Amino acid sequence: MAEGPIDVKHGVTHFTFGFPPGTEVVDASGKEENIHYPMPSDDPADPLNWSPKWKLLTFSTLMLYVFWVSFPYIGVTSMYAPLIIEFGFSVDSISAFVAWSGFMSGIGNIFWVPVACRFGRRPILLVSILGCTAASIWFGTTSHTYRSFLWSRIVLGFFMSPVECFAPMQIADLFFTADRSKMHAWFFINLLVSTNVGGALSGAFADSKAGWRAYFYFNAAMLAITFVLMVFCLPETSFRRSAALARGVHQSDDDFDEEKTQTATENLSTQHATLQLVGKGAPTVSRRWGLTAGRDSTYNPLDALLRVAKAALIGPVWISIGWFGACKGILVGQNYVAAQIWQAPPYNFSNAAVGMTNIPSIVGTISGCLFWGWLSDWDLARRTRKNGGIREPEMRLWLIIPGVIIGTIGIVIYAVGAQRGWPWPIILIIGNTLNFFGLIAPLICGLSYSIDAYNRLAAEIGLLLAAFGNAWIFGVGYFVNNLLATRGYTTGLMFLMIPVWGMTAITIGYLFFGKSARRLTINHSLLK
Protein backbone atom coordinates (compact mmCIF):
# COMPACT_ATOMS: atom_id res chain seq x y z
CA MET A 1 0.00 0.00 0.00
CA ALA A 2 1.41 3.34 -0.96
CA GLU A 3 2.01 6.01 1.60
CA GLY A 4 0.63 9.21 0.17
CA PRO A 5 1.39 12.87 0.64
CA ILE A 6 1.54 14.19 4.15
CA ASP A 7 0.82 17.68 5.35
CA VAL A 8 1.88 18.92 8.77
CA LYS A 9 0.48 22.32 9.73
CA HIS A 10 0.37 24.01 13.10
CA GLY A 11 1.27 20.81 14.91
CA VAL A 12 -1.57 18.83 13.26
CA THR A 13 -0.85 15.63 11.40
CA HIS A 14 -2.65 15.26 8.05
CA PHE A 15 -2.70 11.68 6.78
CA THR A 16 -3.92 11.11 3.25
CA PHE A 17 -3.67 7.34 3.12
CA GLY A 18 -1.61 4.23 3.81
CA PHE A 19 -0.18 4.79 7.29
CA PRO A 20 -0.34 1.84 9.73
CA PRO A 21 -1.46 2.43 13.32
CA GLY A 22 1.18 4.20 15.38
CA THR A 23 3.09 5.82 12.53
CA GLU A 24 3.14 9.55 13.19
CA VAL A 25 4.34 12.61 11.32
CA VAL A 26 6.14 15.34 13.21
CA ASP A 27 8.06 18.44 12.20
CA ALA A 28 11.04 17.27 10.17
CA SER A 29 13.26 19.58 12.24
CA GLY A 30 12.38 17.43 15.25
CA LYS A 31 10.33 20.07 17.09
CA GLU A 32 8.05 17.47 18.57
CA GLU A 33 6.62 19.82 21.15
CA ASN A 34 4.57 21.34 18.33
CA ILE A 35 2.91 18.01 17.54
CA HIS A 36 0.05 16.65 19.62
CA TYR A 37 -0.82 12.99 19.27
CA PRO A 38 -3.41 11.76 19.97
CA MET A 39 -5.41 14.76 18.83
CA PRO A 40 -7.28 16.40 21.74
CA SER A 41 -10.91 17.46 21.50
CA ASP A 42 -12.21 21.03 21.70
CA ASP A 43 -13.49 20.45 25.25
CA PRO A 44 -11.47 22.10 28.07
CA ALA A 45 -12.45 19.14 30.28
CA ASP A 46 -10.59 16.74 27.98
CA PRO A 47 -7.66 15.45 30.14
CA LEU A 48 -5.28 16.06 27.23
CA ASN A 49 -6.17 19.75 27.51
CA TRP A 50 -5.73 20.02 31.28
CA SER A 51 -3.21 22.49 32.66
CA PRO A 52 0.20 21.16 33.79
CA LYS A 53 -0.90 21.76 37.40
CA TRP A 54 -3.92 19.48 37.09
CA LYS A 55 -1.98 16.82 35.21
CA LEU A 56 0.77 16.83 37.85
CA LEU A 57 -1.72 16.66 40.72
CA THR A 58 -3.68 13.83 39.12
CA PHE A 59 -0.60 11.84 38.15
CA SER A 60 1.10 12.32 41.54
CA THR A 61 -2.00 11.11 43.37
CA LEU A 62 -2.24 8.12 41.04
CA MET A 63 1.39 7.27 41.81
CA LEU A 64 0.68 7.40 45.56
CA TYR A 65 -2.09 4.87 44.92
CA VAL A 66 0.32 2.66 42.94
CA PHE A 67 2.97 2.86 45.68
CA TRP A 68 0.86 1.98 48.72
CA VAL A 69 -1.33 -0.61 47.03
CA SER A 70 1.80 -2.43 45.76
CA PHE A 71 3.64 -2.00 49.07
CA PRO A 72 2.60 -5.30 50.80
CA TYR A 73 2.85 -7.47 47.67
CA ILE A 74 6.15 -9.24 48.52
CA GLY A 75 6.33 -8.20 52.18
CA VAL A 76 5.88 -11.76 53.43
CA THR A 77 9.08 -12.87 51.67
CA SER A 78 11.08 -11.21 54.48
CA MET A 79 8.91 -12.83 57.19
CA TYR A 80 9.60 -16.49 56.52
CA ALA A 81 11.26 -17.13 59.89
CA PRO A 82 8.54 -15.72 62.20
CA LEU A 83 5.74 -17.32 60.15
CA ILE A 84 7.51 -20.68 60.20
CA ILE A 85 8.21 -20.45 63.94
CA GLU A 86 4.75 -19.17 64.94
CA PHE A 87 2.57 -21.25 62.61
CA GLY A 88 4.78 -24.03 61.25
CA PHE A 89 4.28 -23.00 57.61
CA SER A 90 6.67 -24.35 54.97
CA VAL A 91 8.70 -22.12 52.67
CA ASP A 92 6.57 -23.15 49.69
CA SER A 93 3.31 -22.42 51.53
CA ILE A 94 4.50 -18.89 52.40
CA SER A 95 5.58 -18.32 48.78
CA ALA A 96 2.03 -19.26 47.82
CA PHE A 97 0.80 -16.12 49.59
CA VAL A 98 2.66 -14.00 47.03
CA ALA A 99 1.80 -16.32 44.15
CA TRP A 100 -1.94 -16.24 44.77
CA SER A 101 -2.12 -12.50 45.33
CA GLY A 102 -0.21 -12.05 42.07
CA PHE A 103 -2.52 -14.45 40.25
CA MET A 104 -5.63 -12.64 41.47
CA SER A 105 -4.01 -9.32 40.61
CA GLY A 106 -3.85 -10.50 37.02
CA ILE A 107 -7.23 -12.11 36.48
CA GLY A 108 -9.07 -9.56 38.64
CA ASN A 109 -8.85 -7.07 35.81
CA ILE A 110 -11.20 -9.24 33.77
CA PHE A 111 -13.78 -7.79 36.16
CA TRP A 112 -12.34 -4.35 36.91
CA VAL A 113 -11.50 -3.08 33.40
CA PRO A 114 -14.99 -3.58 31.86
CA VAL A 115 -16.56 -2.09 34.99
CA ALA A 116 -14.22 0.91 34.84
CA CYS A 117 -14.93 1.46 31.15
CA ARG A 118 -18.64 1.43 32.02
CA PHE A 119 -18.57 3.52 35.21
CA GLY A 120 -15.25 5.42 35.04
CA ARG A 121 -11.76 5.12 36.52
CA ARG A 122 -12.26 7.21 39.69
CA PRO A 123 -14.93 5.12 41.50
CA ILE A 124 -13.10 1.87 40.76
CA LEU A 125 -9.80 3.17 42.14
CA LEU A 126 -11.53 4.35 45.31
CA VAL A 127 -13.18 0.95 45.80
CA SER A 128 -9.84 -0.73 45.06
CA ILE A 129 -7.90 1.10 47.76
CA LEU A 130 -10.64 0.52 50.34
CA GLY A 131 -10.55 -3.22 49.57
CA CYS A 132 -6.75 -3.27 49.93
CA THR A 133 -7.04 -1.48 53.28
CA ALA A 134 -9.48 -4.12 54.54
CA ALA A 135 -7.27 -6.96 53.28
CA SER A 136 -4.19 -5.58 55.10
CA ILE A 137 -6.14 -5.28 58.33
CA TRP A 138 -7.42 -8.84 57.85
CA PHE A 139 -3.94 -10.30 57.34
CA GLY A 140 -2.46 -8.39 60.27
CA THR A 141 -5.29 -8.70 62.79
CA THR A 142 -7.47 -11.75 62.42
CA SER A 143 -5.40 -14.29 60.49
CA HIS A 144 -4.33 -17.24 62.64
CA THR A 145 -4.73 -20.18 60.25
CA TYR A 146 -3.21 -20.90 56.88
CA ARG A 147 -6.61 -20.68 55.17
CA SER A 148 -7.28 -17.25 56.67
CA PHE A 149 -3.84 -15.98 55.64
CA LEU A 150 -4.29 -17.29 52.11
CA TRP A 151 -7.77 -15.85 51.63
CA SER A 152 -6.69 -12.44 52.88
CA ARG A 153 -3.94 -12.46 50.24
CA ILE A 154 -6.39 -13.56 47.53
CA VAL A 155 -8.70 -10.68 48.46
CA LEU A 156 -5.71 -8.31 48.46
CA GLY A 157 -4.76 -9.50 44.96
CA PHE A 158 -8.29 -8.96 43.65
CA PHE A 159 -8.54 -5.40 44.96
CA MET A 160 -4.99 -4.46 43.94
CA SER A 161 -5.65 -5.62 40.35
CA PRO A 162 -6.16 -2.09 38.94
CA VAL A 163 -2.68 -1.00 40.02
CA GLU A 164 -0.90 -2.50 36.99
CA CYS A 165 -3.66 -1.95 34.46
CA PHE A 166 -5.18 1.43 35.23
CA ALA A 167 -1.95 3.43 35.42
CA PRO A 168 -1.06 2.84 31.72
CA MET A 169 -4.68 3.62 30.84
CA GLN A 170 -4.59 6.92 32.72
CA ILE A 171 -1.19 7.85 31.33
CA ALA A 172 -2.78 7.44 27.89
CA ASP A 173 -5.72 9.58 29.09
CA LEU A 174 -3.50 12.43 30.30
CA PHE A 175 -0.37 12.60 28.15
CA PHE A 176 0.65 12.89 24.52
CA THR A 177 2.84 10.23 22.92
CA ALA A 178 6.09 12.20 23.15
CA ASP A 179 5.84 12.31 26.97
CA ARG A 180 4.71 8.78 27.72
CA SER A 181 8.02 6.99 28.25
CA LYS A 182 8.88 9.39 31.06
CA MET A 183 5.46 8.81 32.61
CA HIS A 184 5.78 5.04 32.22
CA ALA A 185 9.18 5.33 33.94
CA TRP A 186 7.62 7.04 36.95
CA PHE A 187 4.94 4.35 37.00
CA PHE A 188 7.52 1.57 37.13
CA ILE A 189 9.52 3.44 39.78
CA ASN A 190 6.50 3.46 42.07
CA LEU A 191 5.38 -0.06 41.17
CA LEU A 192 8.76 -1.75 41.69
CA VAL A 193 10.28 0.48 44.37
CA SER A 194 7.17 0.14 46.54
CA THR A 195 7.38 -3.66 46.57
CA ASN A 196 11.10 -3.56 47.40
CA VAL A 197 10.64 -0.91 50.10
CA GLY A 198 7.82 -3.04 51.45
CA GLY A 199 10.12 -6.05 51.50
CA ALA A 200 12.84 -4.08 53.28
CA LEU A 201 10.50 -2.70 55.98
CA SER A 202 8.71 -6.00 56.53
CA GLY A 203 11.93 -7.62 57.74
CA ALA A 204 12.59 -4.68 60.06
CA PHE A 205 9.06 -4.93 61.50
CA ALA A 206 9.45 -8.70 61.95
CA ASP A 207 12.60 -8.22 64.07
CA SER A 208 11.21 -5.28 66.06
CA LYS A 209 9.18 -5.31 69.28
CA ALA A 210 6.12 -4.28 67.27
CA GLY A 211 6.19 -7.61 65.42
CA TRP A 212 5.36 -8.63 61.89
CA ARG A 213 1.63 -7.80 62.22
CA ALA A 214 2.45 -4.11 62.78
CA TYR A 215 3.75 -4.01 59.19
CA PHE A 216 0.22 -4.60 57.89
CA TYR A 217 -1.30 -2.07 60.32
CA PHE A 218 1.19 0.49 59.00
CA ASN A 219 0.24 -0.31 55.40
CA ALA A 220 -3.47 -0.06 56.21
CA ALA A 221 -2.94 3.37 57.77
CA MET A 222 -1.05 4.65 54.72
CA LEU A 223 -3.73 3.27 52.40
CA ALA A 224 -6.41 5.09 54.41
CA ILE A 225 -4.50 8.38 54.14
CA THR A 226 -4.05 7.84 50.40
CA PHE A 227 -7.77 7.19 50.02
CA VAL A 228 -8.53 10.61 51.51
CA LEU A 229 -6.05 12.27 49.14
CA MET A 230 -7.61 10.45 46.19
CA VAL A 231 -11.07 11.74 47.08
CA PHE A 232 -9.81 15.32 46.78
CA CYS A 233 -7.00 15.07 44.20
CA LEU A 234 -7.83 12.32 41.69
CA PRO A 235 -10.42 13.52 39.15
CA GLU A 236 -11.99 11.28 36.54
CA THR A 237 -9.73 10.91 33.46
CA SER A 238 -11.92 8.74 31.23
CA PHE A 239 -12.98 10.79 28.20
CA ARG A 240 -14.71 9.72 25.01
CA ARG A 241 -12.82 11.03 22.01
CA SER A 242 -13.64 10.14 18.42
CA ALA A 243 -11.39 7.83 16.45
CA ALA A 244 -10.74 10.60 13.91
CA LEU A 245 -9.42 12.87 16.64
CA ALA A 246 -7.39 10.04 18.14
CA ARG A 247 -5.41 9.59 14.95
CA GLY A 248 -5.60 12.98 13.25
CA VAL A 249 -7.28 13.29 9.85
CA HIS A 250 -6.90 9.95 8.07
CA GLN A 251 -8.13 8.53 4.81
CA SER A 252 -7.55 5.03 3.48
CA ASP A 253 -6.97 4.10 -0.13
CA ASP A 254 -10.56 2.96 -0.46
CA ASP A 255 -11.93 6.26 0.86
CA PHE A 256 -9.65 8.62 -1.06
CA ASP A 257 -11.22 11.21 -3.35
CA GLU A 258 -10.82 14.94 -3.99
CA GLU A 259 -13.91 16.00 -2.06
CA LYS A 260 -12.90 14.12 1.09
CA THR A 261 -9.35 15.41 0.86
CA GLN A 262 -10.66 18.96 0.62
CA THR A 263 -12.85 18.38 3.69
CA ALA A 264 -9.90 16.93 5.59
CA THR A 265 -7.76 19.90 4.67
CA GLU A 266 -10.43 22.31 5.88
CA ASN A 267 -10.52 20.44 9.18
CA LEU A 268 -6.89 21.35 9.79
CA SER A 269 -7.78 24.94 10.65
CA THR A 270 -10.41 23.69 13.09
CA GLN A 271 -7.86 21.38 14.71
CA HIS A 272 -5.37 24.24 14.95
CA ALA A 273 -7.94 26.23 16.92
CA THR A 274 -8.53 23.19 19.14
CA LEU A 275 -4.83 22.99 19.99
CA GLN A 276 -5.00 26.44 21.53
CA LEU A 277 -6.81 24.79 24.47
CA VAL A 278 -3.90 22.47 25.29
CA GLY A 279 -2.56 23.29 28.74
CA LYS A 280 -5.45 25.61 29.59
CA GLY A 281 -8.23 23.17 30.52
CA ALA A 282 -9.29 21.72 33.86
CA PRO A 283 -11.56 18.93 35.12
CA THR A 284 -15.16 19.89 35.72
CA VAL A 285 -16.67 19.89 39.20
CA SER A 286 -18.31 16.53 38.51
CA ARG A 287 -14.96 15.06 37.46
CA ARG A 288 -13.27 16.36 40.61
CA TRP A 289 -15.86 15.32 43.18
CA GLY A 290 -18.39 13.03 41.56
CA LEU A 291 -18.44 9.31 40.87
CA THR A 292 -20.41 9.32 37.62
CA ALA A 293 -18.48 11.67 35.30
CA GLY A 294 -16.81 8.76 33.51
CA ARG A 295 -19.99 6.74 33.09
CA ASP A 296 -20.68 5.46 29.59
CA SER A 297 -24.22 4.07 29.35
CA THR A 298 -23.52 2.66 25.88
CA TYR A 299 -20.61 0.51 27.06
CA ASN A 300 -21.31 -3.22 27.15
CA PRO A 301 -18.97 -5.23 29.44
CA LEU A 302 -19.42 -8.33 27.28
CA ASP A 303 -18.33 -6.33 24.26
CA ALA A 304 -15.34 -5.20 26.31
CA LEU A 305 -14.24 -8.79 26.91
CA LEU A 306 -14.66 -9.46 23.20
CA ARG A 307 -12.42 -6.45 22.51
CA VAL A 308 -9.79 -7.90 24.82
CA ALA A 309 -9.94 -11.23 22.98
CA LYS A 310 -9.56 -9.44 19.65
CA ALA A 311 -6.68 -7.33 20.98
CA ALA A 312 -4.92 -10.52 22.06
CA LEU A 313 -4.69 -11.50 18.39
CA ILE A 314 -2.73 -8.35 17.46
CA GLY A 315 0.94 -9.26 17.32
CA PRO A 316 2.59 -5.95 18.38
CA VAL A 317 0.45 -5.88 21.53
CA TRP A 318 2.37 -8.91 22.79
CA ILE A 319 5.65 -7.01 22.93
CA SER A 320 4.55 -5.21 26.10
CA ILE A 321 2.78 -8.29 27.51
CA GLY A 322 5.75 -10.56 26.91
CA TRP A 323 8.28 -8.15 28.35
CA PHE A 324 6.19 -7.43 31.42
CA GLY A 325 5.89 -11.12 32.25
CA ALA A 326 9.51 -11.97 31.40
CA CYS A 327 11.07 -9.15 33.40
CA LYS A 328 8.71 -9.39 36.34
CA GLY A 329 9.36 -13.14 36.48
CA ILE A 330 13.06 -12.72 37.16
CA LEU A 331 12.78 -9.55 39.28
CA VAL A 332 10.05 -10.89 41.57
CA GLY A 333 11.53 -14.39 41.43
CA GLN A 334 14.63 -13.10 43.22
CA ASN A 335 12.41 -11.92 46.08
CA TYR A 336 10.76 -15.34 46.35
CA VAL A 337 14.13 -16.95 47.10
CA ALA A 338 15.79 -14.14 49.07
CA ALA A 339 15.27 -15.78 52.46
CA GLN A 340 16.41 -19.15 51.10
CA ILE A 341 19.70 -17.63 49.96
CA TRP A 342 20.46 -15.07 52.65
CA GLN A 343 19.31 -16.83 55.81
CA ALA A 344 21.41 -19.88 54.97
CA PRO A 345 25.19 -20.25 55.48
CA PRO A 346 27.55 -18.56 54.80
CA TYR A 347 25.43 -15.42 55.14
CA ASN A 348 22.99 -16.19 58.01
CA PHE A 349 21.14 -12.88 57.66
CA SER A 350 18.44 -11.83 60.13
CA ASN A 351 14.91 -11.01 58.97
CA ALA A 352 15.78 -7.31 58.93
CA ALA A 353 18.96 -7.97 56.95
CA VAL A 354 17.03 -10.05 54.40
CA GLY A 355 14.70 -7.10 54.00
CA MET A 356 17.65 -4.79 53.43
CA THR A 357 18.75 -6.91 50.46
CA ASN A 358 16.01 -5.04 48.60
CA ILE A 359 17.97 -1.76 48.77
CA PRO A 360 20.12 -2.51 45.68
CA SER A 361 16.90 -3.39 43.85
CA ILE A 362 15.50 0.02 44.79
CA VAL A 363 18.65 1.80 43.59
CA GLY A 364 18.65 -0.13 40.32
CA THR A 365 14.95 0.50 39.75
CA ILE A 366 15.06 4.25 40.39
CA SER A 367 18.24 4.86 38.40
CA GLY A 368 17.02 2.58 35.60
CA CYS A 369 13.61 4.25 35.31
CA LEU A 370 15.07 7.76 35.29
CA PHE A 371 17.79 6.84 32.81
CA TRP A 372 15.87 4.64 30.36
CA GLY A 373 12.72 6.77 30.52
CA TRP A 374 14.65 9.90 29.56
CA LEU A 375 16.84 8.10 27.03
CA SER A 376 13.86 6.44 25.33
CA ASP A 377 12.14 9.76 24.61
CA TRP A 378 15.44 11.40 23.58
CA ASP A 379 16.37 8.51 21.27
CA LEU A 380 12.86 8.50 19.77
CA ALA A 381 13.20 12.21 18.89
CA ARG A 382 16.68 11.64 17.43
CA ARG A 383 15.59 8.75 15.24
CA THR A 384 12.51 10.69 14.14
CA ARG A 385 14.63 13.60 12.93
CA LYS A 386 16.89 11.20 11.03
CA ASN A 387 13.77 9.65 9.46
CA GLY A 388 12.61 12.97 8.02
CA GLY A 389 9.94 13.61 10.64
CA ILE A 390 8.26 10.17 10.43
CA ARG A 391 8.00 8.58 13.85
CA GLU A 392 7.63 4.79 14.11
CA PRO A 393 6.87 2.87 17.35
CA GLU A 394 9.69 0.42 16.53
CA MET A 395 12.14 3.23 17.28
CA ARG A 396 11.38 2.54 20.95
CA LEU A 397 12.71 -1.02 20.75
CA TRP A 398 16.40 -0.44 20.05
CA LEU A 399 17.25 0.37 23.68
CA ILE A 400 15.91 -2.99 24.84
CA ILE A 401 19.04 -4.75 23.55
CA PRO A 402 21.62 -2.92 25.74
CA GLY A 403 19.21 -3.17 28.66
CA VAL A 404 19.03 -6.96 28.36
CA ILE A 405 22.83 -7.23 28.08
CA ILE A 406 23.27 -5.23 31.31
CA GLY A 407 20.53 -7.22 33.05
CA THR A 408 22.07 -10.53 32.00
CA ILE A 409 25.46 -9.52 33.39
CA GLY A 410 23.76 -8.62 36.66
CA ILE A 411 21.82 -11.86 37.06
CA VAL A 412 24.89 -13.97 36.18
CA ILE A 413 26.84 -12.22 38.96
CA TYR A 414 23.91 -12.73 41.36
CA ALA A 415 23.33 -16.40 40.51
CA VAL A 416 26.95 -17.56 40.29
CA GLY A 417 27.91 -15.51 43.35
CA ALA A 418 25.10 -17.00 45.45
CA GLN A 419 26.00 -20.50 44.29
CA ARG A 420 29.68 -20.10 45.16
CA GLY A 421 29.28 -18.04 48.31
CA TRP A 422 30.88 -14.84 47.05
CA PRO A 423 30.92 -11.80 49.38
CA TRP A 424 27.43 -10.31 49.56
CA PRO A 425 28.45 -6.80 48.36
CA ILE A 426 29.46 -8.26 44.99
CA ILE A 427 26.22 -10.18 44.62
CA LEU A 428 23.86 -7.46 45.82
CA ILE A 429 25.50 -4.09 45.15
CA ILE A 430 26.88 -5.04 41.73
CA GLY A 431 24.79 -8.00 40.53
CA ASN A 432 21.35 -7.08 41.81
CA THR A 433 21.68 -3.39 40.98
CA LEU A 434 22.78 -4.14 37.40
CA ASN A 435 19.99 -6.67 36.96
CA PHE A 436 17.24 -4.27 37.97
CA PHE A 437 18.83 -1.32 36.16
CA GLY A 438 19.11 -3.21 32.88
CA LEU A 439 15.73 -4.94 32.84
CA ILE A 440 13.88 -1.68 33.42
CA ALA A 441 14.67 -0.82 29.77
CA PRO A 442 12.47 -3.54 28.20
CA LEU A 443 9.70 -2.84 30.71
CA ILE A 444 9.52 0.85 29.75
CA CYS A 445 10.26 0.51 26.04
CA GLY A 446 8.01 -2.51 25.55
CA LEU A 447 5.00 -0.84 27.16
CA SER A 448 5.61 2.44 25.32
CA TYR A 449 5.88 0.57 22.02
CA SER A 450 2.52 -1.19 22.27
CA ILE A 451 0.64 1.89 23.49
CA ASP A 452 2.32 4.15 20.91
CA ALA A 453 1.18 1.71 18.23
CA TYR A 454 -2.36 1.23 19.57
CA ASN A 455 -3.17 4.16 21.81
CA ARG A 456 -6.92 3.46 21.69
CA LEU A 457 -6.34 -0.05 23.07
CA ALA A 458 -4.63 1.07 26.30
CA ALA A 459 -7.30 -0.58 28.48
CA GLU A 460 -7.13 -3.88 26.60
CA ILE A 461 -3.32 -3.85 26.64
CA GLY A 462 -3.29 -3.15 30.36
CA LEU A 463 -5.64 -6.04 31.09
CA LEU A 464 -3.69 -8.51 28.98
CA LEU A 465 -0.39 -7.30 30.42
CA ALA A 466 -1.55 -7.80 34.01
CA ALA A 467 -3.33 -11.11 33.37
CA PHE A 468 -0.59 -12.93 31.49
CA GLY A 469 2.30 -11.34 33.39
CA ASN A 470 0.90 -12.29 36.79
CA ALA A 471 -0.07 -15.77 35.60
CA TRP A 472 3.64 -16.35 34.97
CA ILE A 473 4.49 -14.93 38.41
CA PHE A 474 1.95 -17.35 39.91
CA GLY A 475 3.75 -20.27 38.31
CA VAL A 476 7.16 -18.97 39.39
CA GLY A 477 5.98 -18.82 43.00
CA TYR A 478 5.11 -22.50 42.99
CA PHE A 479 8.27 -23.95 41.46
CA VAL A 480 11.18 -21.57 42.00
CA ASN A 481 12.06 -22.53 45.60
CA ASN A 482 12.11 -26.25 44.79
CA LEU A 483 14.04 -25.54 41.59
CA LEU A 484 16.78 -23.70 43.47
CA ALA A 485 16.84 -26.34 46.21
CA THR A 486 17.25 -29.24 43.76
CA ARG A 487 19.25 -27.69 40.87
CA GLY A 488 21.15 -24.87 42.56
CA TYR A 489 21.00 -21.09 42.35
CA THR A 490 22.75 -20.75 39.00
CA THR A 491 20.50 -23.18 37.12
CA GLY A 492 17.34 -21.92 38.84
CA LEU A 493 17.90 -18.21 38.21
CA MET A 494 19.17 -18.76 34.66
CA PHE A 495 15.97 -20.68 33.97
CA LEU A 496 13.98 -17.57 34.90
CA MET A 497 16.00 -15.62 32.32
CA ILE A 498 14.90 -17.85 29.41
CA PRO A 499 11.73 -15.77 28.75
CA VAL A 500 13.88 -12.62 28.72
CA TRP A 501 16.18 -14.01 26.07
CA GLY A 502 13.23 -15.36 24.09
CA MET A 503 11.57 -11.92 24.09
CA THR A 504 14.87 -10.39 22.99
CA ALA A 505 14.85 -12.56 19.86
CA ILE A 506 11.22 -11.62 19.14
CA THR A 507 11.99 -7.94 19.65
CA ILE A 508 14.88 -8.06 17.19
CA GLY A 509 12.45 -9.47 14.64
CA TYR A 510 10.01 -6.62 15.32
CA LEU A 511 12.75 -4.06 14.76
CA PHE A 512 12.71 -5.09 11.11
CA PHE A 513 9.17 -6.42 10.58
CA GLY A 514 7.13 -4.58 13.19
CA LYS A 515 5.80 -1.99 10.76
CA SER A 516 4.63 -4.76 8.42
CA ALA A 517 2.86 -6.40 11.37
CA ARG A 518 1.14 -3.12 12.20
CA ARG A 519 0.15 -2.61 8.58
CA LEU A 520 -1.81 -5.86 8.73
CA THR A 521 -4.05 -4.26 11.38
CA ILE A 522 -4.75 -0.98 9.55
CA ASN A 523 -8.40 -1.96 8.97
CA HIS A 524 -8.84 -3.86 12.24
CA SER A 525 -12.33 -3.52 13.70
CA LEU A 526 -10.94 -2.29 17.05
CA LEU A 527 -9.34 0.71 15.37
CA LYS A 528 -12.36 1.96 13.45
TrEMBL record:
Keywords: Membrane, Transmembrane, Transmembrane helix
Membrane topology: Multi-pass membrane protein
Transmembrane segments: 62-85, 97-117, 124-142, 154-176, 185-206, 212-234, 311-332, 352-375, 396-416, 422-445, 457-480, 492-513
Highest taxon, organism lineage: Eukaryota
SUPFAM superfamilies: MFS general substrate transporter (SSF103473)
InterPro entries recorded: MFS (IPR011701), MFS_dom (IPR020846), MFS_trans_sf (IPR036259)
Domain Major facilitator superfamily (MFS) profile: 56-517
Record's subcellular location: Membrane
GO terms, molecular function: transmembrane transporter activity
GO CC aspect terms: plasma membrane
The protein, known as: Major facilitator superfamily domain-containing protein
